[in-house]
Amino acid sequence: MATRRAQAVGTEQTWLENARDFIQETLCPADKEPTIQFTQSVIDCVKTTWSSQGRNQGSTLPLSYGFASVQDLRSYQCLPCCSHLTWSSTAYQAWAQEAGLSGAPLPRERLLLVGTLTDLSGDLEQGGRNGSLYVKDNTGILGCELIDLDLSWLGHLFLFPSWGYLPPAKWNRSGEGHLELWSAPVPVFPLTISTGPPTPIPVLYPEAACRLLRHRSKLRVMQPNLAGKLVRLSALVKSKKKAYFILSLGELSPPDSQMGGHVSIIVQVPTQLVWHRALWPGRAYVLTELRASKIHGHRYRVWTTKPSSHLLPLKPECVRELDLDLELGRTLLEADAKTLPRTSSIQDRQEQKGPARDSTLLSYTGTVTAVLNQPAGLYELDGQLGLCLSYQQFHSLRRVVRPGVRLELQDVHLLQSVGGGTRRPVLAACLRGAVLLRGFSRLKPESQSSLHAWGAYLYEKLVWERQLGLPLYLWVTKALEELASKLCPHMLRHHQFLQCASPASPSLALQLLAPTLDVLAPPCVPSRNAHKEILEEPHCCPLQKYSRLQTPCSFPTLAALKEEGECKAWDSFDPKTLLSAPEVAHLTSCQLNQRLAWSWLCLLPSTFQPAQVLVGVLVASSHKGCLQLRDQSGSLPCLLLDKHSQPVTDPWLIGCLVRAERFQLVIERNVKSSFPSWQELGMEGFIQDQRARVYVQFLLADALIWPMPRTFLPSATSSTRPQPEPSLPEVPHVGQSRLFLLSHKEALMKRNFCAPPGASAAVAKPTLSFHVSGRWLGGTQRKEGTGWGPPQLKGDENKDQKVLLIFMGPSVRWFEFLHPGQVYRLVAPGPPTPALFEEDGSSCISQRPLELAGCTSCLTVQDAWILEHERSQDIPDIPGISKVLPESSLTDLLSDNFTDSLVSFSAEILSRTLCEPFPAASGTKPGSTEARKGCVKITVAVEAAHCEFPPHLDIYIEGPHLPRPLGLLPGARVYFKQLEKRVSRSHNVYCYFQSSTYMHVLSFPPETTVSVPLPHVYLARLLQGGQTPFQAIASCHIVSVFSLQLLWVCAHCTSLSVQGRCTHQGSTCPTQTSVSQASIRLLVEDGTAEAVVTCRNHQVAAALGLCPSEWASLLELVKGPGKVALQFIGPEAQPESSAKTDEPLTLFLRSLCTSLSVLRPVELSFELERKPSKIIPLEPPRLQQFQRGKLPLLTHVNPRIQLSCLSIQEPEHSSSLGAFASSCSETVTKA
């Protein structure tokens, strides 16, 4: 450090010469000539102090010490340090070793500090006094802290034998450090003691002073002196107009109550504000020449000091009590005694009943053990209590308080169980209480984060303007830390996040919290009344009453949200619950594992405790072609929808900050398993691989969006109040653009492109890309000022020109914003280039596909080009564009007409499963790994106008280069364009997702699912033309059984299993697990028509009227032969099994199928076996002959309806008919 410091081995003469030079330049008064006597007095003071501890060490001068000026400390001392003139090295090492147990001790510098102790901040006017202390010399002034101030020290020159210096912290924007004066200063010259008022001093004690305030006529002529013990000291309040504090004097010996009667005195004279540092609660004082004043907003008059008032220690021998009986008259005093206002203590008040509770006022002395959030005023006391100082103006204490500091807290509030994530009790000081420094810390200050460096003003705004209660304030501080950890410093600078952009605009941090704060704590007008908070009884302040806060929400990082979503998804993944319980026992291994291969879970914010709020910066990924929310922890894919089921079309959203309280967190689970059968579903060892795809989807209407601020560097010398962000000079924007109308967009997938000329000869890999087709709207436009100039027309450019645009590489980021029917502007920054938007000479598309697409040119969008969305109504030259999406009619969709095999429609997704890939998938070899990835089968209900029962259709999405789109979930509504219509071998229409297919989600799955009951119909309605329900319920009667089949098959290869063993020749099945399968065909009628119903597996038990135990016993009997099949032709049953017809099992089944236990009325839930997508014509009515006695009858008979059973229920009015089945079962068992 560049100070005038003597070398450790220097001579006394050299040290004295340097000292004299320093004293004359730095300490001698500027308006006087340096004198030898002044210089010698300073040196003698140093000598005396140095030799007072008997540490001469052969010299009367501290040769190892050098003088340091205020300017030296401010300019060159960049690290915290301390200096102890009277300490030996051994004493310092012991002191440092003791301090080092809890942190890094302050390093020692051998410096001598001499200066004047003053309360003037450099301005000689009284306005320069605000209650702070300073050390001053000719080079400058430094703020300081002193534990026990004697007012007679002010204005005198001192040697400070023990002190510490702390350079300015990050949050201290004044750029000045401060001093900690650890021991009493040593005066260079003898102190001049003020004589004060003549003794004995006539005084009034608090009780008499309170009664005197009732006599306005006497107050005008009396300026009494008040004496008493200091029982309360408020905080030093600094407002825009003035600064003041209030002290309360009590009786020297209060008789009963803890507080007793007391009188309050306001000290607001600038020269007297420093008294706040000299007052000690519990000591007795005299305040002279007081006057009574009326304070705005307060009901009673209070005593205030005058410029001529003095603060003196109370000495009983120097005062005499004033007799008011002689001054005012006994009668008047007695008459007024009964109307005096009564001061109450906190013990006199009862707790308020209900959820709100009263805090407890107390005094406490403790040591700071941790700094939790310095600008927010949050600390830890004694390792077990929280301390909040934010409800006071603690600017001076903020720079001192750190671990190791000892504080005395007077009249602070104790709040317990505040909630909001805070578990420990908290002490909080309002304006009535005092926070007094009682011991300095030996430790170096901890380095503060940028969040703590820039957040002080924001926290003050929350307390003083919002008037937040302590529970909510503590939650806000934690929420701000969560948000800052998400966004700062890589995405936002801390000052951009915490500071106001302008005085009228709140900070970005406050805007993120505003939706929650506006509900829990609406803005308050007016703000806190300091006089009322300190003076009035009963006490009322923001800390007095509080309620336990239930944490309203949290702002997790996107990585934490994703991880928690995955954990919830896998915790809830239970194969037994994913599959239907009755059906799962009949599934083969392949069917079982295929149904478990894909599942999904949707989590709402309310699912989490507390509720989660989504916050992140919206970015467009060029690697995946989707939108993402990003913070410092990572990114999360997202799917956005604009209002009215419209996709997001405006790219200005890129880079904006998004906050969403309503969203859906979707976890798609992909599981690769090898369960042999349903019996092993509880064994995790059969799960070979599990992966999850997590993304979020929400509506823009449910989100708040802010543009990200520009980066700027704040001034190091700016004032305490944040300044508006400086405006950056406008850079002239040079570029050209062209409008185009998008008519179609193809799917995003990996495509092969021919290598451009001059490229590497290496084999090119498929590139993620997409195409859009449309037409140019006018010619190229150049930038003119802030707008675009007129189009440049060349030849036939005024005519519509169809164009194919190729997006690949970084330009893939525009995929989510491009949609048919919208007008966009393609902007190329930089100097104008002729024919920039003409046909790309190095196009990777041959001319033939362009001709098929009807386009005249092809253009590859360059990486640096920008996409802007234009509203078509703002462009007068464009005719009206229909926003209605083209849709195929149901007639074209479900017909055998294939003149146009590409169809478009909107539909609601009913189910989604994984299935085996189509044979010879396009672009892959049959045995390749990519061909074995499988495909997605989506069953949808097609939306059509005036269609009460929408037809169901299957859509298959496969392809090794096609990424799975987001949002294809059951319950979602989706628009598909240019799906390929195909017909299966069973003559059912289905659709296939091609590379030219366009889709976008119209709506997300509903948050709450409402089950719609199936319609109740007559069977004859299914024969009528027009719309018929695909699924329904009918009350009918089982007429007869056509066929019944019970068998056991190998769960692995589905071959017949006899005695539980696979019968496949050369079987290499890994397990000998078998599953049962069953089917039955029934003839039912309801009086209007007949239908043949096919029931499978567990439905067969319901059709036969068997309970679960009876059904299990029957299947066990079938396990021996492996298969039992009966065909009922007339009254006799023809068995098809290895068992003989007279076997008990066959006899039982024949008797059961012809009994009333089966042939009974039922409630049948069914679906049409013939799908609405089947394109072969219906079978016409046929002629059938009936015999009526000897008379034959010939009539037209409608074909029997083919139905698939969903469930069979017994009618509510029917009685139990299982007695016969039970008796038959017993017979078989006995046999």
Automatic annotation (TrEMBL):
Pfam families: CTC1 (PF15489). Keywords: Chromosome, DNA-binding, Nucleus, Telomere. The keyword 4Fe-4S does not apply. The keyword DNA-binding applies. It is found in: Chromosome, Telomere; Nucleus. InterPro entries: CTC1, CTC1-like. PANTHER family: CST COMPLEX SUBUNIT CTC1. Belongs to the CTC1 family. This is CST complex subunit CTC1. It comes from Pipistrellus nathusii (Nathusius' pipistrelle).
